[in-house]
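Researcher: Here's the sequence for the chain we discussed earlier.
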Amino acid sequence: MAMRFEGCKTGFARRLSAAFGGLSAPRPPEGTFGKMKAGMAGLALCLAAGPGMAEGAADRVTVDGFHATAVMTGDAEWQKAWKEVPPEDAVALAEVTALKVGEKAWMITAFANPEVRDGAIDIRCDLKIVRPDGTESTVPEAPCAKGALEGDAAALHLTGMLVEMSAEAGDARGTWRAEIGITDANRGGRVPLVLQYELVDGEGAE
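Model: Thanks. This is the structure I predict for it:
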């Protein structure tokens, strides 16, 4: 599956509910992953975290007060919804758990309550994709939100790691797994997240 990394360019801060309801963010500080392609496919939400380190539901996790979340959506207009929904409201995104050939999905990651040091945050992201046959592709840790923070630190903020995935005919059918790390370098804490999805037979809408 083709996978393209893009830096998030716009967004607004949203209130972080007790249940992490909805996604939100201001314009992210500098820090992007650039662009690349690599084989990969669809995802359902789950969590891989060390015992006693993390708390929260599968798609929203807290480690030592630092919050992170990840979601896969098939809504190509998700950024429009993000910008148009009032900051105090949650953004409802249709989640993806399976993809067919020709379909696309977007993996979105966000964080809240980063430690601000000398007026700046330092958030880093890493990613590993595990294919159905067990082979892997990795993206080493790199800055994905760095510099002055806009808006309320307790609100949910987009990282600069936006991944667009396209299911292709030659991709292996079965379960694809994305292991994501969101690190607050100022605090020294890393939140581990996992997204899983199925690449299934059939063709989706082009």
